[in-house]
Each structure stands twice: as structure tokens, then as C-alpha cells.
Amino acid sequence: MPQHTPHAPFAEGQIGHDLLTRLDEAARYSQPGPGVTRLFCSPEHRQVLPLIEQWMELAGLTPELDAAGSLVGRCPNAQAGKPTLTLGSHQDSVVEGGKYDGMLGIAVPLIALEALRREGITLPYGVEVVAFGDEEGVRFPTTLVGSRALAGTTDPQQLKARDKQGISLKEALRSFGVEPDGIPALARDPANTLGFVEVHIEQGPRLEQHDHAVGVVTSLTGIERHQVTVSGKAGHAGTTPMPGRHDALVGASEMVLAVDRVLQTTEGLVGVVGQLDVHPNAVNVIPASVTFTVELRSPQSETRQRGHETIQAALDEVAERRELTLSMDNTYRADGAHCAEWIMHGLEQACATVEQPTDRMFSGAGHDGLAMQDVTDIGMLFVRCKEGLSHHPDESISAEDGEAAVRVIMAFLQQLDAFRCR
């Protein structure tokens, strides 16, 4: 990182104000409608990149769009091959999501690095900040494309996944202006990677309940996703007798309720049927087929497996009884991840340095750390969000909490070598 100080240090309270201003600006790059809708390799994704590039340059980093669609900013030490700490999060959103989920974890480390640069502080190791292209898995039936690329665990089958328009992930990346054949070369060297740290809104109420601005994450939940296809037989809604119909939607409706029953009665397991598509989706035609998703979450792989098997048996029973055909295909699976003790301790010490009380807490959401754990130690800092609300247009944090998170990361970066030597 450059030795000079190009600008005066941030004034008291300016960091939090500038952080929210940046996140407001990033939220403008969205499809029309409530909240933020910015999907992977979309026009909105392309449009937000110059803004993030500006943030990276202010932090003393050189930005580059990689073959997986992630924007990576690297400091001179990282470019020179020194051991490097990776920070960052995702720029993509769910449909009609909030402005802080993901983007906060890009803006916080960049402002932290900019603040250190303004103070003339040079870090002795490399730093890279990554704006991952895809974490939400909304456009394609796969996810963690960018972080799996850095971890060196990309499955070539991922690139064959298609969106609802029939565009493959490989085609989307090429249209976006990158060459996906270069993804294998993105894998980071574990011996040269110091760790991965992500800042994220909590997506839950615990910090608010404890009146804490930040929290240290202990582990991330495991996730698996399935695509279920129910096939029946189309027919005229007015002339086909009710007895003997093979209505795929009626069968799928019963299956959705069966999924909910399993989730309600299996301890330690949560999930959702989040998408449902009906064909031919006409007002006077008996539905011929229905496709829906089943997502299961638990930190214990055994719990997810048991839930999956119970759900599969329940769906098979409905299909057999209603004379429908059924397929249930796994589209994504990631085991839970434990955060490294040295990173948790380091974040706690950084919180103490800036006089921020904190707790250790579990994440019920999945993050890019699920992929990054395969290449390096991971850690995560949660930031309080109003009413624990996330994946919603009303997602909200305060400038004071945002500044607290930035100052924690600044302290963590300056004390990193001491934490790692423990």
C-alpha cells in the first residue's frame, strides 16, 4: 500500500456517513421496483462495477474483473506476491432485496483501507478485497461461483447451469466480457493466503436485543438445494372429469405442505419452498407440470440428510397416490463451516481496541465462507440491522454501527500479525 497520505484523515463520524452514502449510491444500480434487484451478470451488475472500482482505487487497490465475474482489488504487496489476506462479500442481491446484504461487506473493508491509507499506515502483508459476482444463487440454480473459483473447487458442471431464459452460466459470463475457461487459474495458493474475512449484516435480531453494534461469528450453516419436477397430464379444464385427472399443481401443492410438515417437525432443520413454476400456466388448462425448489439448512449434514430423505419419501407417496411422475435433483450443496479461532479472537480483540462490546454468535445464513473454507481460514463480523430484517427493501443499519464495523476492521488489519502468531 502506498506510503503517502493523499487525503486528510476522516473526521469523527465521517466514516459512517460516507459508508451509508456509498451504499445508497450502489443501491441505484437495480432493476425497477422496490428494494434492490441486481442479479449475476445482469446489466445492473455491469453498471455497478465502475463505482466499486472507484472505491478500490481510493483504498489504494488495483481493480480487475476476473474470469468468474468477481471484481478483485489488490494492493501492491498482494500484486508482488506477498502473503495476502482476502476480504469482501457479494454484490448481487435477491429479488427486491435490501441495500446492505452483501454490499456492506465490500464497502466496509474498502473504507477501512482508505482510512488507514489517509493516516499513512502501511500494512506489511498483502490485501485483496473481492466483490463476488454471485452468492445469492437467484439467477442460476447454482451459487458461490466467485468464491469457489478462488478456492479452486469450481465444478465444470456449474457452467452448464441455465437461467429461466435458457442462458447457460458459461454463456452469461462470456456475454459479461470474461472468459470462464480461465476460472481454474483463479485458485489461490493456500500457503500464500492468510485468511478470508467477511463483514455482513446479522440477518437476525440478537445484536439488537443485546444492544451491540457488532458480533463475532463462530460458524456458518450448511445448505442444500433441490429442484423438484412434478409431471401430470394437461387437459381442458371444462371438459375433463374431476375423477381421474392428473393435475400436477394439485399434487405439487400437497407436496409443498408435506415439505413444510417435515421442516416443522425436524429439530435443527429449517428450509423453504421458494420458487414455483407452473406449465402451461393457462387459466383454463389443467397444469401438466410444476417445478419447485426445496432449500434445506442446518449446520449438521446428518440433519440435512435425514430431512432430505424424509421429504423425498413424502413426495414419492404423493406422486404415487396421484399417479404423477416425480424427479428431485440436487442443484447445490455446501457443508457448514467453522470460523478459525485465531480470527474470532482477533476480531474480539479489535472490538476491544475500539471499545465495542461483542458476542460470539452462529450464522443461520450461508456466505462465501462456505466455499473459501476449502482454501483458507475464515472469519466473519456481523453488524446490527434494524429488527433483524434482511432480504427485504426495508433492510437498515445506522451510520454509527457502520462506523463501528469499519473501525473494528481497521484495528484487526493493524494487529493481524499478532493474532496469527498466537
UniProtKB/TrEMBL annotation:
<keyword id="KW-0378">Hydrolase</keyword>
<protein>
    <submittedName>
        <fullName>M20 family metallo-hydrolase</fullName>
    </submittedName>
</protein>
<dbReference type="InterPro" id="IPR002933">
    <property type="entry name" value="Peptidase_M20"/>
</dbReference>
<keyword id="KW-0479">Metal-binding</keyword>
<feature type="domain" description="Peptidase M20 dimerisation">
    <location>
        <begin position="222"/>
        <end position="321"/>
    </location>
</feature>
<dbReference type="InterPro" id="IPR010158">
    <property type="entry name" value="Amidase_Cbmase"/>
</dbReference>
<keyword id="KW-0464">Manganese</keyword>
<comment type="similarity">
    <text>Belongs to the peptidase M20 family.</text>
</comment>
<dbReference type="InterPro" id="IPR036264">
    <property type="entry name" value="Bact_exopeptidase_dim_dom"/>
</dbReference>
<dbReference type="InterPro" id="IPR011650">
    <property type="entry name" value="Peptidase_M20_dimer"/>
</dbReference>
<dbReference type="Pfam" id="PF01546">
    <property type="entry name" value="Peptidase_M20"/>
</dbReference>
<comment type="subunit">
    <text>Homodimer.</text>
</comment>
<dbReference type="Pfam" id="PF07687">
    <property type="entry name" value="M20_dimer"/>
</dbReference>
